[in-house]
Amino acid sequence: SEEEVSKLLVAGIDPVKEIHSCFAEFTYTPRSLHDDITPMFCLMVKKGYRDPPYHNWMHAFSVSHFCYLMYKNLMLSNYLE
Question: Which residues form the PDEase domain (predicted)?
Fold first, then answer.
């Protein structure tokens, strides 16, 4: 809902070092994402996840982060088009 997106935008983002000390070593995609699109997307994905023992929001974040790290560190962009 708009209210959830607004609350997420107002809450701000913790400093990167508080999330994980190595998180700041990786760069984000060069594409420009609007500030209101990213939280809305994250909330939609979170709402779509059920709550079985392992397949939940934290699992989705972990898998996404792992895929991102593989993409960046193995230079998979050289093999994907």
Answer: 1-81
